[in-house]
UniProtKB/TrEMBL annotation:
Belongs to the ABC transporter superfamily. Residues 2-241 form the ABC transporter domain. InterPro entries: AAA+_ATPase (IPR003593), ABC_transporter-like_ATP-bd (IPR003439), ABC_transporter-like_CS (IPR017871), ACT-like_dom_sf (IPR045865), MetN_ABC (IPR041701), MetN_ABC_transporter-like (IPR050086), NIL_domain (IPR018449), P-loop_NTPase (IPR027417). This is Methionine ABC transporter ATP-binding protein. GO terms for cellular component: plasma membrane. GO terms for molecular function: ATP binding; ATP hydrolysis activity. PROSITE patterns: ABC_TRANSPORTER_1, ABC_TRANSPORTER_2. The keyword Iron-sulfur does not apply. GO terms for biological process: amino acid transport. Transmembrane segments: none annotated. Keywords: Amino-acid transport, ATP-binding, Cell membrane, Membrane, Nucleotide-binding, Translocase, Transport.
Length: 343
């Protein structure tokens, strides 16, 4: 769907040449939610803006739906852009126009007749959950509602790709989640390809299938979100993963602490990989075996491709039953470490 080949972007500044994007190769599949994360200045916005021709690469090629975005101009570029919607951190709405008029704007530019326009606007208002707010002005809306208008406007011409430039960075955590849920729904309902840039790992964790980590204009790491979370390679990636999961191995400290707190019984450390947490393994384990088990500490993260993490259980019961229970968990694919028999 999107092919970025050997793309470099240099800017001429008064302090000389600045390398913003450095020889990037990326291939983004149709229907995928692809995240690009990096700190300020990493080159994310420049890369995103090259995807709809707002910037031209200095070297390399960019194709979206088989159209070479970096070479086409004029009408051809305008037509190609109708297939690529974009939303922005600060919404970029027209303040003197109502919600309906904002959403209708790209349809007017595309020459869609008024009756079709009105119908499409109403569909979009429903799709983004803004029913009843069509006649409001942007100044009368909350941040989340403004971004919903931005999304409706970006979808007006039925694009194949939606580019999201820090779309939730100006929103509070709860509103961020509701906008991310909306993006996820749109991706599933319409099969839309979504490319988003962010500096928040939470955003990547919640909705992306794959992620590229950018640093100094280069892609430092690339992979399925769950693989990157489980096994970050580069220091920059580890820093991002730490925003949402503590990747330091603090098991020993945890164990010492738990042993003091629970002098009787046993402490088991359960490690879950991928989607196994979603299976009712723990419920079955407690139902089937005559053991007492309490979750005393845990850090399980849900990503788009499954969950992973660790749980510390305090268990007690007859040794033979405990052994059976342990075997059951291991057979279900849960890694169990008996940290020590403390009684
Ligand atoms: N039009 C421009 N002219 C000159 N330099 C630019 C221009 N646009 C971006 N840059 C520079 O290119 C580098 C990459 O910027 P870019 O905005 O792509 O990074 P970013 O990762 O999106 O960061 P941020 O989140 O702060 O926007 C920065 O050093 C920036 O100052």
């Amino acid at each position: 769907m999107i092919e970025i080949k050997k793309v470099t972007k240099r800017f001429n500044t008064k302090n000389g040449e600045l390398l913003a994007v450095d020889n990037v190769d990326l291939s983004i599949q149709s229907g995928e939610i692809f995240g690009i994360i990096g700190y300020s200045g990493a080159g994310k916005s420049t890369l995103l803006r090259m995807l709809n021709g707002l910037e031209k690469p200095t070297e390399g090629t960019i194709s979206v739906s088989d159209k070479l975005i970096n070479t086409i101009k004029g009408t051809k570029l305008r037509e190609a852009r109708q297939e690529i919607g974009m939303i922005f951190q600060h919404f970029n709405l027209l303040w003197s126009r109502t919600v309906e008029e904002n959403i209708a704007f790209p349809l007017e530019i595309a020459g869609v007749p008024k009756s079709q326009r009105d119908k499409r606007v109403q569909e979009l208002i429903e799709l983004v959950g803004l029913g009843g707010r069509g006649r409001s002005y942007p100044s009368q809306l909350s941040g989340g509602q403004k971004q919903r208008v931005g999304i409706a406007r970006a979808l007006a011409n039925n694009p194949k790709v939606l580019l999201c430039d820090e779309a939730t960075s100006a929103l509070d955590p709860e509103t961020t989640d509701s906008i991310l849920d909306l993006l996820l729904n749109i991706n599933q309902q319409l099969g839309l390809t979504v490319v988003l840039i962010t500096h928040e790992m939470h955003v990547i964790k919640k909705i992306c299938h794959r992620v590229a980590v950018m640093e100094n204009g280069k892609v430092a790491e690339l992979g399925d979100v769950i693989d990157v979370f489980e096994n970050p390679q580069k220091e920059v990636t580890k820093r991002f993963v730490r925003q949402v999961v503590d990747v330091e191995d603090d098991s020993l400290e945890t164990f010492t602490h738990l042993k003091e707190k629970y002098p009787e019984g046993h402490i088991w450390k359960l490690t879950f990989k991928r989607s196994i947490v979603e299976q009712p393994v723990l419920t079955d384990f407690i139902r089937q075996f005559d053991v007492t088990a309490n979750i005393v500490q845990g850090n399980v993260s849900q990503t788009k491709n499954g969950a992973f993490g660790e749980l510390f259980l305090h268990v007690s019961g007859v040794n033979s039953v405990l052994n059976e229970a342990l075997t059951y968990l291991q057979e279900k694919g849960v890694q169990v470490e008996v940290m020590s028999d403390v009684n």
